[in-house]
């Protein structure tokens, strides 16, 4: 449909980018807008997009709560392993990619330390050998046979399980839990 990248670039990418340039002529702007419209129409046939407006007809009003949840002893131990002072100093003076990798690692620990066992797509040399080594050491803190569905590894999952239990006891018909990251869906 879009054929090869060189053809896509010639037909869509170059005219669209050129039209967004500050020195674009009126002709470039017109062509870029037309190609952007064509590309959007083509993409609509592949992408199913739901907006909040559509969902409001089917869902009750959204209710949000902020809970402060105590991490498990395991989570605290893993945090201590990862956040060694010498490692933090390396991050402060190192490339931004290492800091971003650390933020991803800390987020995984917050959700469930077992998530550290799942390698990041695109993790590379910039993430730092030190971070990968510390993650491997932290994985050694997990109990033998730890599984992704073990909620006792995570304070957040323990709290979620307790909340869902209460909702079930109160005969709440449906609950919508929306994870902030795709890999969180894998936590059962």
UniProtKB/TrEMBL annotation:
Q: Does the keyword Cell cycle apply?
A: no
Where do the SNF2 N-terminal domain residues begin and end? 2-113
Gene3D superfamilies recorded: P-loop containing nucleotide triphosphate hydrolases, SWI2/SNF2 ATPases, N-terminal domain
**GO molecular function, a single term:** DNA translocase activity
Keyword NAD assigned: no
Q: Which GO terms describe its biological process?
A: double-strand break repair via homologous recombination; reciprocal meiotic recombination
Q: Which PANTHER family match?
A: DNA EXCISION REPAIR PROTEIN ERCC-6-RELATED, SNF2/RAD54 FAMILY MEMBER
Ordered alphabetically, the record's keywords are: ATP-binding, Hydrolase, Nucleotide-binding
Q: Name one GO cellular component term.
A: nucleus
Stored InterPro entries: P-loop_NTPase, SNF2_N, SNF2_RAD54_helicase_repair
| Short name of any one Pfam family annotated for the protein | SNF2-rel_dom
- Lineage, top-rank taxon, reads Eukaryota
Q: What is its EC number?
A: 3.6.1.-
> What organism is this sequence from?
Thanatephorus cucumeris (strain AG1-IB / isolate 7/3/14) (Lettuce bottom rot fungus)
Q: What is this protein called?
A: DNA repair and recombination protein RAD54B
């Amino acid at each position: 449909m879009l054929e090869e990248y060189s053809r896509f670039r010639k037909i869509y990418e170059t005219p669209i980018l050129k039209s967004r340039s500050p020195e674009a002529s009126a002709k470039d702007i017109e062509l870029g807008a037309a190609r952007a419209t064509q590309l959007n129409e083509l993409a609509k046939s592949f992408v199913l997009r739901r907006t909040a407006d559509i969902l409001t007809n089917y869902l009750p009003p959204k209710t949000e709560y902020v809970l402060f949840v105590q991490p498990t002893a395991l989570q605290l131990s893993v945090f201590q392993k990862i956040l060694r002072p010498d490692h933090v100093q390396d991050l402060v003076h190192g490339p931004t990619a290492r800091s971003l990798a650390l933020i991803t690692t800390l987020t995984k620990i917050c959700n469930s330390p077992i998530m550290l066992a799942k390698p990041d797509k695109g993790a590379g040399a910039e993430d730092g050998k030190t971070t990968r080594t510390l993650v491997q050491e932290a994985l050694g803190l997990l109990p033998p046979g730890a599984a992704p569905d073990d909620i006792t590894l995570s304070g957040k999952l323990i709290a979620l399980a307790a909340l869902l239990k209460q909702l079930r006891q109160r005969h709440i018909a449906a609950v919508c839990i929306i994870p902030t990251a795709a890999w969180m869906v894998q936590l059962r």
